[in-house]
Amino acid sequence: MPDPTRQSTRTRQLTGALVHGIYLSMKTTMTLSDAQVHLGRLVRSQRTVAISRRGRTEAFLVPRRRMEMILETMELLANPKAVAAVRRDRSGKGKYLPLSALDED
User: Is 24's pLDDT higher than 60?
Assistant: First the structure.
């Protein structure tokens, strides 16, 4: 079994730390066979991992919480009214009301 803490041509780390015995970075690329061997540790590490096969990235292992944030962002960007509100806010033209304004209906 290969040592996952060692840098190799099969695993590329950019920057990172030792987590559960595996040296992981903010973006880690592992081969499919290495990811299969260390799947439990990778899931517990809560890091995003690119999984490659034959030198090409084929899949990503993304923690649930991060995936939920990505999906929420995609939903907001698919809503034209939400995008317009974000643009208004960024331009400084956003209109803010006190929370009590919700009770006035």
Answer: no
HEC states along 34-49?
HHHHCHHHHHHHCCCE
pTM over 0.85: no
64-77 vs 80-91: helix crossing angle, rounded to 10: 90
DSSP-derived 3-state class of residue 66? helix
Domains of the chain: 12-62 (3.40.1620), 65-94 (no CATH)
Which helix (H) or strand (E) segment holds residue 88: the answer is helix 80-91
Please, which residues bridge with residue 51 across strands? Answer: 30, 59
